[in-house]
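Field reference: sequence -> structure
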Amino acid sequence: MDLDHFQPRKLAYGEDVRSDYRLLECSEELLDTILREGTVIKGGENDEAVLCTRMKTYALKYVETTNMQLLVSPDIGGFENAGNDDIENSPYSMVNAPGLQTQIQKLSRCCQKTKAVTVTATNQSHLEAVEIAPRLGALEALLLKRPYGLADEQLGEVEEDTMADPCSSAVTGTEGLHTFRDLLERVQASEEELRAGLRSLGAIELNGSWRTVDPQYLGSLLELIISSCQQLGHSFIRVPATEVCESLRECGVNPAIAMHCLEAYGSPAGDDISSSNPADTRCCAAGSASKFWALNESKVCKYFAGKLLTCGRQMSTVEFMNKLKDAVPDGMQPSLESLKGEVLMTGKSQNTQVKAFPLSALPREPAKRFAALFAERPKWNADDMEPYISDLKVPGLTTGALLLKYARVSQTSPQDPIIYSMR
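Structure field:
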């Protein structure tokens, strides 16, 4: 508005004053992003609306104000012929300090020389944008409805060339499948957060649709890869991707799924890491162009540990470790330390039992995650809890802050370990 010191303006209501506008309070950084890149508001009938930019997600908090806010039309001018006399005679001037009636008279004369500021809308509330973690629960629910498995291989549903146009509709049997654009519309997350969520779920793009792979089927492929390496004489720390994928193709396995298995249980090997492109977020994992891959010993051991402890089965620690050493490939050395986040030990001293408790089966939202942890075990020490909360990411909150928010801290004596229990 064109307002100057000592120069009052008239305020007038327009003919059609609206009250349906919503103001948004945001940081300068967010405002700059909105003006430069645009934004979108997402949410279904039963969801709280969120605002998403390309990189971040924001909750929209409804804030009421006690005072009415007046929205005015764009200013088109102030004083027409204002001079020093106007300033000196302004009711706000301290010159001569006039009385109340004199101020009113001067204000009336001063305002006659100005154009009125027109009120076009009123408002008594606004929306505040607060950065939050993406809400990926819907993403997991959508993808788990139709995971890729053995039936898909047998039906030949997915062609070998799996990197088709994401907008293509030339996929047979697309019921329950979702393109990236579809997921972006339905999941309350930014574009980059959605890509990160797909990677964390181990999803893969097949003929334009994003799918998770059935864990049991993925595990069976891992065993095929291990068997192939043993037959071909390859080291587990330098697996030739092309040769192994071709070997699995002869068994009826889609090469893209075989490659996905290498990405899930391994990483680019040695000098070949430089040939990968970590910035390429179109792939499930960076480095899929690498020629050689190294199987991750911890991930492989976790797979075989989960296989031994299926259906809620428990074993003594000694029996479990003996069977696990027999199950894993030769050359790999499993340890309880490397199995954190996959198994839990219960009991004390000689009666210690091992049971499956995989991180992948726990909720992703912090409140639900902590509730699930304390439902499993009323009290946790820091070492046991750390692998189950280290992946939680909440803007503005560290892991320590999350523990203070969702757990009660106790310590019997300074020498004893810190214990966390339900708040």
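Note: The chain has 15 helices and 17 strands.
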